[in-house]
UniProtKB/TrEMBL annotation:
Keywords: ATP-binding, Nucleotide-binding
Family according to the record: Belongs to the GSP E family.
Record organism: Pseudomonas spelaei
Source organism, top-level taxon: Bacteria
GO molecular function, one term: ATP binding
Protein name (Swiss-Prot/TrEMBL): Pilus assembly protein PilQ
InterPro entries documented for this protein: P-loop_NTPase, T2SS/T4SS_dom
Length: 518
């Protein structure tokens, strides 16, 4: 018996298709239902034996008594096998792929590529990747994982293999695809629930777009992440957590969480709504409309219906006796007007919007076409939160900036000196076992929480967004994302290079708001 270890090197090239093609018509699972070594359901979660002699065993259950007993049974029957250590999600994916092979619903190529995809997604899940990118070029397909906000190359294949992977994924693994896969047009879909559950995910979205040399397909993996379940876990400051508490206490009004794509808006919304549910003791009807639901929430969650527009769905929710309404996103004028209608009729409305700072959320609504008098009414437009996510440094392998000044450009070094933060600053290290070689251990929020009032709205209406932002900081004690970033920089939690790349220059407040950071 030989033991192999599953260990994908994200920086290495892996063009060996046999290493990732798990189940083909001639390579079936002998431990599946009806197989010669059929296992009980609970043991099928821990191991799987393929007809080519590979026994896949969960890394956490190598010494499980039942797994070891099954290995002894194989030895006793002189059945040759090799053990490959892998994740439980990979084992689930094996059985799922085996069902499709036995169904005869797919061609040999589709079956092979589908098995390849499920193993790839299993590895992405194991590494907590938020997105998987298939970039099909003229000669080479490159596959990337987005981990902690950064792209890492996972695999390379011939372009024909990449096209087959995208085609098999879209045609045989998605349940809301309107048409068959067409690499020359943009398409959206969702992975079938059966595959999502097998991989241990809450959901997975698919989006495609043609590029110059070939198609691009991006999968957004949706997790029910139990590791961060408080606003403090996400990285918010005590003052900002108090602002969320104030928002939850409001009887009505429109409240937005804003930020760029992938900034954690939905996760923040989930935690805030769960707190609201707990605080009201379940006595209020919390209703959501999402496309699709991304996280489980203590609320009545409803997806956008087939053929239903966003504004039609929002209008319909008003007829369902809600107390609190959460809309996944304000996308256009119609949905914005519907959300404000909810606020005007006595509902607490929460939603998201794409903007780069809190005050810009108000200007964005006006640019959409919402009446200015509605946006500037502090009793109606009650709060705007803006957030971004920064990679958080691994405390075990981070390195002091003062010992590696050659890695920083002179202007950044000067900005750190001006902030009196250089001696407190750390840079991303080389990686270690604690961070799985990445140098970062997750992402942390930097945010702005704006609770509007009459004076703020008057400044905004009469003098514009820049003057209102200055007023918010100087008169209302607002903390900008730049200021929040500097706090975390001085704590040694973020790399200043990544911070400036995602938030902007560290002296941005001084430039825009005429402020200094003590």
């Amino acid at each position: 018996m030989t033991i192999l270890t599953e260990n994908l090197d994200l920086t290495a090239l892996n063009a060996d298709e046999s290493a990732v093609s798990l189940v083909t018509p001639h390579q079936l699972l002998l431990t599946a239902v009806g197989g010669p070594f059929e296992l009980k359901p609970e043991l099928r979660q821990l191991c799987a034996l393929t007809s080519d002699g590979i026994l896949y065993v969960s890394a956490q259950h190598q010494t499980d008594a039942y797994v070891m007993a099954f290995e002894d049974q194989l030895d006793h029957e002189n059945h040759r096998f090799e053990v490959k250590v892998c994740s439980m999600s990979t084992i689930k994916a094996l059985y799922q792929a085996n069902e499709y092979v036995n169904s005869g619903a797919l061609s040999t190529t589709e079956t092979k590529r589908q098995a390849q995809v499920v193993q790839l997604l299993g590895e992405a899940h194991r590494r907590n990747a938020s997105d998987v990118h298939f970039v099909v070029g003229h000669d080479i397909t490159r596959i990337f994982f987005r981990i902690h906000g950064m792209l890492w190359e996972a695999e390379q294949h011939q372009s024909e293999v990449g096209r087959e992977l995208c085609s098999s994924l879209y045609n045989s693994m998605c349940d809301v695809a309107k048409d068959h896969y067409q690499p020359h047009v943009s398409q959206d879909a969702r992975i079938k629930r059966a595959f999502v559950e097998q991989l241990g995910l809450f959901g997975a979205r698919v989006a495609t777009r043609p590029l110059v040399d070939g198609p691009l397909m991006v999968l957004r993996l949706l997790y029910d992440d139990k590791t961060k379940m408080t606003l403090e876990d996400l990285g918010f400051l005590p003052q900002q957590i108090d602002a969320f508490s104030r928002i939850r206490s409001l009887p009505y009004g429109v409240n937005l969480i804003t930020g760029p794509t992938g900034s954690g808006k939905t996760k923040t919304q989930q935690i805030n709504l769960n707190l609201l549910h707990e605080e009201c003791g379940g006595t209020k009807h919390i209703l959501t409309m999402e496309d699709p639901p991304e996280y489980p929430i203590l609320a009545n969650q409803s997806p956008l219906g087939p053929g239903e527009t966003w504004s039609e769905g929002i209008t319909n929710t008003m007829r369902l006796d809600p107390d609190i309404l959460m809309y996944g996103e304000i996308r256009d004028l119609a949905s914005a007007q519907a959300a404000f209608s909810g606020g005007m009729t006595g509902h607490l409305v929460l939603s998201t919007l794409h903007t780069n700072n809190a005050v810009a959320g108000l200007q964005r609504l006006i640019d959409m076409g919402v009446d200015r008098y509605l946006v500037t009414d502090p009793a109606l437009m009650t709060s705007v939160v803006n957030q971004s996510l920064l990679p958080e440094l691994c405390p075990h392998c981070r390195v002091p900036a003062t010992a590696h000044l050659n890695l920083l450009n002179g202007a950044l070094v000067q900005r750190l000196r001006d902030l009196q933060a250089l001696d407190l600053t750390y840079l991303k290290g080389p990686g270690c076992p604690h961070c799985k070689g990445l140098g970062v251990i997750g992402r942390t929020a930097v945010a702005e929480t704006l609770l509007t009032d009459l004076n703020f709205m008057r400044v905004f209406d009469e003098q514009g967004a820049s003057a209102a932002r200055r007023y918010w900081v100087k008169e209302m004690g607002g903390i900008t994302k730049t200021a929040h970033t500097i706090i975390k920089l001085r704590q040694g939690r973020v790399d200043p290079r990544q911070a400036e790349m995602m938030i902007g220059p560290l002296d941005f407040d001084r430039q825009i708001l005429e402020l200094t950071h003590a």
